[in-house]
Specification:
- The structure holds two protein chains of two kinds.
- The two termini of chain A are about 35 Å apart.
- In chain A, helix 3 packs parallel to helix 5 and helix 4 runs antiparallel to helix 5.
- The model of chain A has no long low-confidence stretch (mean pLDDT about 90).
- Chain A is of the alpha/beta class.
- Helix content of chain A is about 35%, strand content about 25%.
- By secondary structure, chain B is of the alpha/beta class.
- Chain B has two domains: about 230 residues, no CATH class; about 100 residues, abc type-2 transporter like domain (abc type-2 transporter like fold), CATH 3.40.1710.
- In chain B, strands 2-1-3-4 form a four-stranded mixed sheet, with helices on both faces.
- Chain B is elongated and about 95 Å long.
- The chains are: A alpha/beta, B alpha/beta.
- At the A-B interface, helix 2 and helix 3 of A face helix 1 and helix 8 of B.
Chain lengths: ~300, ~375
């Protein structure tokens, strides 16, 4: 049985289509990621799955229950971490956790094992009010609160937004641990590099899913050759490459610009020549394996051409 | 039940950690009662007047003395001629000039009729009215004495007696009115803000997803404010009794029960507002402009309803505070028992049920 089964979900707000014919399944014990820019429809989709919104069309089963008819059953078994962390700013760390434990009919002690690893990191601050915590600590506390009733499914809406990179990595480590303990996780994020950490990902844009697969398969399907280009003046390099007649795409990626060619195989000599003529005499060009971000950029661009 | 208790504890934490809510809950009632009781008073005390006595006989002396010894007035100056009147008023210190006509006592005993002219500075019409009222009644009083002693022929005079509030004390009127306003403020405004705050902070999302029933959420929000509003009621009554000597002629128990009913009405309005507004600001605007203003203006607490245009009189029937003011005045001042106020009570009960039904219909178990 799938933990989540969604088929043909539509949802509109007045004239804007937030979700347009979304279908996917989530298997037991996997981390399923929704990757997409702001406004893609991730939050709307998650609110439907947590029974907070009713879809205009289509069906969704969560843990075998219909999100419209059996919403009460779902609400007991799902752990939900909303986009803004949903903490009471004027309650302390401990009081927040205790409150969420009580309303789900449990105690901190009862499920302490599950949150222990995460909670010990914020326990020194347990008397501090949640409003005074850093972004990373708020995120950990919110995760503890979502986990305290030992849910079968964890739904996390952009849990890493607004959190520093170190805390983000730690957070993903925690998710991996939870997965080991048999909790299925549905997570959304605007950061494409986090996609590689999921078991399966769905790329979502303008309310439509572009591709649903494992990160490996998505990368394997990518056929273009990627060149990493670097020079002293990266901004000027970007401008010059955008003007190059064979350029298919050029995107900044860390220290390099990722360049793809319109032709099947790029001609390195020609490119080097072009750059030399345009003042980038000390440029460096390497071939680099595609990253999941390259694939998403490509998919999103294709989509925009179709539109 | 344990869930509900946890929820209640959280609510009390919210209230007692927020200095602003504490100020609204306990500061405002005390300040308002004291302000209305002391500062904004309709009573006259040591009003400065001038007297132009063109007769200077025994009777006019006696009348003047009576007026000045009443405690309401203080003689600022004696005027010598009609020409001084205008400039006396111009200086803005005196509020009234009393003019006795020449040969006052002769006329009174010969013709049975003599006149006193009262001029009042009506740039403050309420005050002028009051001054004239007080002065005339003192003169009337004196005349009565003359009639009784047989020295003048009887003429028909009206005898005015203010019942239930013989001294026309303003604070008697303000206490019921303020109770209605303060309880509304505490109950309706505070609950609606507290519920919409959860919506705004995003915590409502998680509460809805939790196994807590919507009823539990709402009741849990309401109970703390119910208790606090009750504390406020007691505070106002104590202040009224021991600081301003407002009598309580009726039953205290009945008064408290009626106050509880009114608190519930106000709370149900608060919940209703919070279900139809999505953020604290809307809830606050709704409560303040949609509730507080009509309550202050149309409950009959400051402006008498009988003097309003017909349309406003009709409209005032929809203001819960109007009925509560009638009830409280009835119990405190007239000593009414339940049989005199059952109609007003029934109206409040009806309003409460209506608001609650509307809330249940509007309350969303989801976000949309």
């Amino acid at each position: 049985m799938h933990i989540v089964e969604v088929s043909g979900i539509h949802k509109s707000y007045k004239s804007t289509k937030a979700l347009d014919d979304i279908s996917f399944d989530v298997n037991y014990g996997e981390i399923f990621g929704f990757i997409g820019p702001d406004g893609a429809g991730k939050t709307t989709l998650f609110r439907i799955l947590t029974t907070l919104l009713i879809p205009d069309k289509g069906n969704a089963l969560v843990l075998g229950n219909d999100v419209v008819k059996d919403y009460k059953k779902i609400r007991k078994r799902v752990g939900y971490m909303a986009g803004r962390f949903s903490l009471y700013q004027d309650l302390t760390v401990e009081e927040n956790l205790k409150f969420y434990a009580t309303i789900f009919g449990t105690t901190i002690e009862e499920n302490y094992d599950l949150i222990k690893e995460i909670y010990v990191q914020i326990e020194p601050f347990k008397k501090r009010r949640a409003g005074k915590l850093s972004g990373g600590m708020k995120q950990k506390l919110a995760l503890c609160c979502a986990l305290i009733h030992k849910p079968d499914l964890l739904i996390l809406d952009e849990p890493t937004t607004g959190v520093d990179p170190v805390s983000r990595n730690e957070f993903w480590d925690m998710l991996m641990n939870l997965k080991e303990q048999g909790i299925t996780i549905l997570v959304s994020t605007p950061y494409m590099n986090e996609a590689a950490l999921c078991d399966r990902v769905a790329l979502i844009q303008n309310g439509k899913t572009l591709s649903i697969d494992t990160p490996e398969n998505i990368i394997n399907r990518y056929t273009k050759i990627i060149l990493g280009v670097r020079s002293d003046n990266m901004y000027d390099l970007l401008l010059k490459l955008q003007k190059y007649k064979y350029t298919h795409s050029v995107q900044p990626f860390g220290e390099y610009l990722h360049y793809t060619d319109k032709r099947e195989k790029p001609n390195l000599e020609e490119l080097k020549d072009y750059l030399n003529k345009n003042g980038h005499t000390s440029s460096e060009i390497i071939t680099t394996p595609p990253d999941i971000e390259d694939c998403f950029m490509e998919l999103m661009e294709e989509k925009e051409h179709v539109n | 039940m344990k869930r509900f208790k946890g929820f209640l504890i959280k609510e009390f934490h919210h209230i007692f950690r927020d200095k602003r809510s504490l100020l609204i809950l306990f500061g405002i009632p005390i300040v308002q009662i004291l302000l209305f009781g002391y500062a904004i008073t309709n009573e006259l005390k040591d009003g400065k007047i001038a007297i132009l006595d063109q007769s200077k006989d025994e009777i006019t002396q006696e009348i003047s003395n009576k007026i000045l010894s009443s405690g309401y007035f203080m003689l600022y100056e004696d005027l010598e001629s009609q020409n001084d009147i205008e400039s006396a008023f111009q200086r803005g210190i005196i509020k009234e000039v009393i003019i006795f006509e020449p040969e006052f006592s002769e006329k009174l005993f010969r013709d049975g009729k003599a006149s006193v002219q009262l001029l009042a500075d009506a740039s403050d019409p309420n005050l002028a009215n009051m001054i004239i009222g007080y002065t005339s009644s003192i003169i009337q009083n004196y005349q009565q004495g003359l009639i009784k002693s047989g020295s003048v022929q009887p003429v028909i005079t009206t005898e005015v007696k203010m019942i239930y509030n013989p001294e026309l004390k303003g604070v008697y009127m303000f206490v019921p009115g303020l109770m209605s306003v303060i309880l509304l403020l505490v109950s309706a405004l505070m609950t609606s803000i507290s519920i919409t705050r959860e919506k705004e902070m995003g915590t409502m999302e998680v509460l809805l997803v939790s196994p807590l029933k919507p009823v539990q959420i709402v009741v849990g929000k309401v109970i703390p404010y119910f208790l606090l509003a009750f504390v406020d009621t007691c505070m106002i009554l104590l202040l009224a009794r021991f600081v301003f000597d407002v009598p309580l002629t009726g039953s205290l128990l009945l008064l408290i029960l009626e106050s509880i009913l009114y608190i519930i009405t106000a709370l149900s309005l608060g919940i209703l507002f919070s279900t139809i507004s999505n953020n604290q600001q809307t809830a606050m605007m709704l409560s303040l402009s949609g509730l507080m203003l009509p309550t202050i203006l149309l409950s009959g607490f400051i402006f008498p309803i009988d003097n309003m245009p017909y349309i406003l009189q009709l409209f005032s029937n929809f203001i819960p505070a109007k009925w509560f003011v009638i009830i409280v005045k009835g119990i405190m001042l007239k000593g009414n028992n339940f049989f005199y106020i059952w109609k007003e009570t029934l109206i409040l009960v009806g309003m409460t049920i209506f608001f609650l039904l509307l809330t249940i219909k509007k309350f969303k178990i989801r976000l949309q």
